[in-house]
Amino acid sequence: MNFRTELSYESPSVKLDYSNRIFTIGSCFATEISDKLSERKFSVLNNPFGVLFHPIAIENALMRIYSQEEYQASEIYKNEELFISWDHHSSFSDTSLEKILFHINKNLKEAHSFLREADMVVITLGTAFVYRLRQYDLIVANCHKISNHQFTKYLLQEHQIKTSLKNIVEMLTDIGKKGLKIVFTLSPVRHAKDGIVENNLSKARLLCAIHSAIDSYLANCEYFPVYEFVMDDLRDYRFYKEDLVHPNDLAINYIWKKFKTAYISQKALPLMQKVEKINQSLNHKILHINTIAHKKFLYSLVKDIQEVEPQLPQGCFREEFLELRKRMQESY
Hints:
Helix 4 crosses helix 5. The relative contact order is 0.13. It is built from ten helices and ten strands. The protein is of the alpha/beta class.
């Protein structure tokens, strides 16, 4: 007897190995997948503007990356002691105007360069609700905890979302190399503060617009059903964090396994398993660092890294290797 409707998904057109580059942008799932790939030493660039929740914010970010138009001081807003950008997540905020501009424009250049060589772009949409800053008549990516009375909140119409996704696909197709695959996902995180009914309406509009984009650009785009994995496959509050909104580690690991099955090539799996084993060893807690056994452990770990490194993106174990060398010197 089955007690759940298990969902499986197999990508019809793309498999990743360690020669590929993956760009991720959007809501929290984009970061979760990026973290999983990065831990396993794939070449990944995630959210150069910080976490972005709605399609207009993602479109605006990609337009700046596409055009390489650097941000100017006039585009930075000062709120009390902090300088902020309306196009960026609050993690970019800084007490120094020079520092925030340097950080933003550095990421802009790196993102443009990375996207030109990317093989896959993963886009995660979170909500169709947007906030318009009344003072400048500007749709913002983040409100930076500024008083609500400065914004007008509204729900994007489906045609607005479709137009935004159309622009996104065309920009990525133009900047990217031939064969670039764009994978759309819908965040399973419920924006409960908008209201449960309102959240469902928001997700429904996003989902309809995503599938409309895929139907229009079938050769470039596909849909990975993250939302359905959580809402229909797992479908239980034990897969959520205490806030009952965000999926917990159990759910994230389940989705990662589904992503791995769908998108990671069979030839990359043995190497990925070696990387995972190295990561486990690196995270191993050592009680007695001055023992011969510990010295042998460190030496063996260095040899393991040296064995796999030539098959991985250049320099991906650089920091770990330097740390191991330091630990080896300290143990003598």
